[in-house]
Specification:
Layout: H1 7-35, H2 42-53, H3 63-92, H4 101-130, E1 136-137, E2 151-152, H5 159-170, H6 179-204, H7 214-244, H8 255-266, H9 275-305
Antiparallel strand pairs: 1-2
Helix pairs in contact: 1-2, 1-3, 1-9, 3-4, 4-6, 6-7, 7-8, 7-9
Length: about 300
């Protein structure tokens, strides 16, 4: 069997759609907590969004991730799985050989590096749209002649307009704003994502079986997601702030400046803002993603294995 397979890309695409549908409402809450002001707690943020924007507020900016994260997830899972098999083919002359810890680390890091190229623009547009409210108070704009209570109209009409506006104002590099922070988040983040998942599945698979059952996959995926997103929160805060920055003016010069200003203005606790939402959101989102991925992958391979009549 060839070490490179397209099945993982297709299954990853299905898993990506599932994860967005499950996790986007809490992702909106997470972004508001990390970037916005005045929410106080997770519960207060949820109540405020619902009161001001109704249920639709939790799904703001969802159309773009739904279309793009499917492709993004397809690439991440496809790259990870095929890199892992390529390593096994090279080291053990068997692409299906159980990977060692070092194999999983390398495959996870490669997936993290590749993910930023696709995920950077996706996250940027998603966060810019999530930060728009129906009546957005221009509290972060220092313009002396504007009276207190001035409301700024939403800067973007939708994902396409958001992306085109960023390209017009900031050029191609603008759509990768926050990419360095995303790189620092995703490379270790995917190690803490795929490695716990793989070992938890192996641990929960009974002797004599080659694959874990659906419940074990769901549980392992959820635990891996909670671990990965919980530990990635500090750099996720920095990434979110850099990407939300620049709608009307730029406050941060880069990763180091964002960390410095955030710490000086709000203290160390700012880097753990949204950690509860991240961990809680990480469980159902990743559980749904891995379950959809594994079930889809098994169905695809089962169909391939069936002989044609």
């Amino acid at each position: 069997m060839s070490s490179f397979q397209l099945d993982d890309f297709v299954a990853g695409w299905i898993g990506g759609i599932t994860s967005v549908m499950v996790g986007h409402p809490l992702d909106t809450v997470k972004t508001r907590l990390q970037v916005g002001k005045g929410y106080g707690s997770t519960l207060n943020c949820i109540c405020t969004v619902y009161r001001n924007e109704s249920v639709a507020g939790f799904f703001k900016g969802m159309s773009f991730p739904l279309a793009s994260i499917a492709f993004y997830n397809s690439v991440v899972f496809g790259v990870f799985s095929n890199t892992q098999r390529l390593i096994s083919q090279h080291r053990y002359e068997n692409p299906n050989h159980a990977p060692a810890l070092s194999d999983l680390v390398v495959a996870s890091m490669v997936a993290g590096l590749i993910s930023v190229g696709i995920g950077g623009p996706v996250d940027l547009v998603k966060i810019r749209l999530q930060m728009q409210t129906q009546s957005q108070l221009a509290e972060n704009i220092t313009v002396g002649h504007r009276p207190l209570g001035f409301y700024e109209q939403p800067a973007y009409r939708g994902p396409v307009h958001c992306l085109s506006t960023i390209l017009q104002r900031e050029g191609f590099t603008g759509i990768y704003r926050g990419a360095n922070a995303m790189l620092l988040r995703d490379v270790p983040g995917y190690c803490l994502y795929f490695i716990p998942y793989t070992f938890l599945c192996q641990w929960s698979t009974p002797d004599g079986r080659s694959t874990a059952n659906a419940y074990s996959v769901w549980m392992a995926g959820g635990i891996a997601g909670a671990i990965s997103w919980g530990t990635a929160t500090p750099m996720d805060v920095v990434k979110s702030r850099l990407q939300a920055d620049g709608v009307h003016f730029k406050k941060y010069k880069g990763v180091a400046d964002c960390i410095s200003q955030s710490y000086q203005n709000e203290g160390l606790k700012v880097f753990f803002r949204g950690i509860t939402v991240n961990a809680v959101r990480g469980f159902p989102t990743s559980a749904a993603m891995f379950l959809a991925y594994e079930l889809s992958l098994r169905a695809i391979r089962r169909n391939h294995a069936e002989p044609n009549p």
